[in-house]
Specification:
The relative contact order is 0.30. The longest helix is centred in the middle third of the chain and has 20 residues. The protein is flat. By secondary structure, the protein is an alpha+beta fold. The chain has a 3-stranded antiparallel sheet, with helices on one face. It has one domain. Helices cover 38% and strands 21% of the residues. It has 1 helix and 3 strands; from the N terminus they run E-H-E-E.
Protein backbone atom coordinates (compact mmCIF):
# COMPACT_ATOMS: atom_id res chain seq x y z
CA UNK A 1 0.00 0.00 0.00
CA UNK A 2 1.22 3.48 -0.85
CA UNK A 3 0.21 6.37 1.41
CA UNK A 4 0.79 9.92 0.23
CA UNK A 5 0.59 12.94 2.53
CA UNK A 6 0.69 16.45 1.07
CA UNK A 7 0.61 19.48 3.34
CA UNK A 8 -0.57 22.82 1.98
CA UNK A 9 -0.26 26.15 3.80
CA UNK A 10 -2.49 28.70 2.04
CA UNK A 11 -1.27 32.30 2.02
CA UNK A 12 -4.74 33.70 2.82
CA UNK A 13 -8.42 32.79 3.08
CA UNK A 14 -9.00 33.30 -0.64
CA UNK A 15 -6.21 30.86 -1.53
CA UNK A 16 -7.57 28.39 1.02
CA UNK A 17 -11.05 28.56 -0.54
CA UNK A 18 -9.57 27.96 -4.01
CA UNK A 19 -7.61 24.93 -2.80
CA UNK A 20 -10.70 23.45 -1.16
CA UNK A 21 -12.83 24.02 -4.28
CA UNK A 22 -10.14 22.53 -6.57
CA UNK A 23 -9.71 19.52 -4.30
CA UNK A 24 -13.38 18.51 -4.56
CA UNK A 25 -13.01 17.38 -8.20
CA UNK A 26 -9.53 15.97 -7.57
CA UNK A 27 -10.73 13.84 -4.66
CA UNK A 28 -13.84 12.65 -6.50
CA UNK A 29 -11.80 11.64 -9.56
CA UNK A 30 -9.14 9.92 -7.47
CA UNK A 31 -11.68 7.90 -5.49
CA UNK A 32 -13.11 6.60 -8.78
CA UNK A 33 -9.73 5.15 -9.83
CA UNK A 34 -9.34 1.39 -9.55
CA UNK A 35 -7.38 0.39 -6.47
CA UNK A 36 -7.87 3.70 -4.66
CA UNK A 37 -8.84 2.97 -1.07
CA UNK A 38 -9.43 6.54 0.12
CA UNK A 39 -8.51 10.16 -0.54
CA UNK A 40 -9.47 13.12 1.66
CA UNK A 41 -8.57 16.68 2.56
CA UNK A 42 -8.20 17.54 6.22
CA UNK A 43 -7.85 20.93 7.89
CA UNK A 44 -5.53 21.58 10.82
CA UNK A 45 -7.12 24.57 12.54
CA UNK A 46 -4.28 25.07 15.01
CA UNK A 47 -1.78 25.95 12.27
CA UNK A 48 -4.20 26.86 9.45
CA UNK A 49 -2.97 24.22 7.04
CA UNK A 50 -4.56 21.58 4.81
CA UNK A 51 -3.46 17.96 4.41
CA UNK A 52 -4.22 15.68 1.48
CA UNK A 53 -4.23 12.02 2.53
Amino acid sequence: MIIVLAKVVPKDDEAKAKIIEFSKDLIESSKAEEGNVDYNLYENTSEDSLMFV
